[in-house]
């Protein structure tokens, strides 16, 4: 049986390195999601160039030209419907979404956050983690709900904090993990392998081997379970 690939949009505001990881992973025709649209909330987002060079349709919905959040979101919604989008990945999309927009995409709107939620919601996650002296930091892919950086967790990856770390060095190692878990998490959602109960996300049979968990501690033999995607 051939799987119909889920039509997926990526929403960005800047660099777009997670967008790039998703586009590159989805080049494989057996990957269950197809990236068909990139929307940027900013005209100067550098990620737009990669989308164009790679033949992915892209549009700017410049949040600054709209009177309010709902008008901005209604424009995005029109484009998403026009492209018959089924799943959305927020990838460094730095606008808060309204409950109206989120309610249009139940179980179909994913976000990546550079921390092990529920720790370090919001901004400057790496500097705050270092200031707190945590030894383990990481990133999270979750379903979006109206409360910021909350919602059922699909995948997480942990990185060890090193004595030599600065916010920039820690961010770089976390970002490498983001690029691994986001395509894995999107694959699980696109394949319909997940079931959500309250805040918990369960993996349905027969996809248990696809649990997107990575724990690549440095200095020991890496302990990794196979990830999806
Ligand atoms: C990523 O680290 C992502 O986790 C973060 O912004 C960066 C975007 O980088 N997102 C958030 O902080 C959202 N709360 P990218 O544009 O290179 O993917």
Question: What does this molecule look like?
Answer:
This protein is an alpha/beta fold and 229 residues long. The chain folds into 2 domains: 1-105, Formyl transferase, N-terminal domain (Rossmann fold), CATH 3.40.50.170; 112-229, Rossmann fold. The protein is 29% helix and 25% strand. The chain is built from 6 helices and 11 strands. The chain has helices at 17-25, 47-53, 69-82, 99-103, 125-132, 167-190, and strands at residues 6-12, 33-40, 57-60, 87-90, 109-113, 136-143, 153-160, 194-197, 200-203, 213-215, 223-224. The chain has a 9-stranded mixed sheet, with helices on one face. A two-stranded antiparallel ribbon has the order 8-9. A hairpin with a 7-residue loop joins strand 10 (213-215) and strand 11. It is globular and about 50 Å long. 41% of the residues are buried.
List keywords for this structure.
2 domains, nine-stranded mixed β-sheet, Rossmann fold, 6 helices, 229 residues, alpha/beta
What is the topological layout?
Elements: E1 6-12, H1 17-25, E2 33-40, H2 47-53, E3 57-60, H3 69-82, E4 87-90, H4 99-103, E5 109-113, H5 125-132, E6 136-143, E7 153-160, H6 167-190, E8 194-197, E9 200-203, E10 213-215, E11 223-224
Parallel strand pairs: 1-2, 1-4, 2-3, 4-5, 7-10
Antiparallel strand pairs: 5-6, 6-7, 8-9, 10-11
The structure holds glycinamide ribonucleotide.
């Amino acid at each position: 049986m051939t799987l119909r690939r889920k039509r997926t949009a990526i929403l960005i505001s800047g660099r777009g390195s997670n967008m790039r990881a998703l586009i590159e992973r989805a080049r494989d025709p057996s990957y269950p999601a197809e990236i068909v649209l990139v929307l940027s909330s900013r005209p100067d987002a550098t990620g737009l160039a990669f989308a164009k060079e790679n033949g992915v349709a892209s549009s700017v919905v410049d949040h600054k030209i709209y009177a309010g959040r709902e008008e901005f979101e209604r424009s995005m919604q029109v484009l998403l419907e026009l492209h018959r989008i089924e799943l959305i990945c927020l990838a460094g999309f730095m606008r808060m979404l309204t409950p109206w927009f989120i309610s249009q995409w139940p179980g179909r709107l994913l976000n990546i956050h550079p921390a092990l939620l529920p720790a370090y919601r919001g901004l400057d996650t790496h500097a705050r983690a270092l200031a707190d002296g945590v030894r383990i930091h990481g990133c999270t892919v979750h379903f979006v709900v109206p409360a910021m950086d909350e919602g059922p967790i699909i995948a997480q990856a942990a990185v060890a904090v090193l004595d030599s770390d600065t916010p920039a060095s820690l961010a770089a190692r976390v970002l490498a993990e983001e690029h691994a878990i986001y395509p894995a998490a999107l694959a699980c959602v696109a394949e319909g392998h997940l079931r959500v109960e309250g805040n918990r996300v369960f993996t349905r049979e027969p996809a248990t081997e696809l649990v997107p968990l990575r724990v690549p501690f440095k200095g020991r033999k890496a302990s990794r379970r196979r990830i999806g995607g």
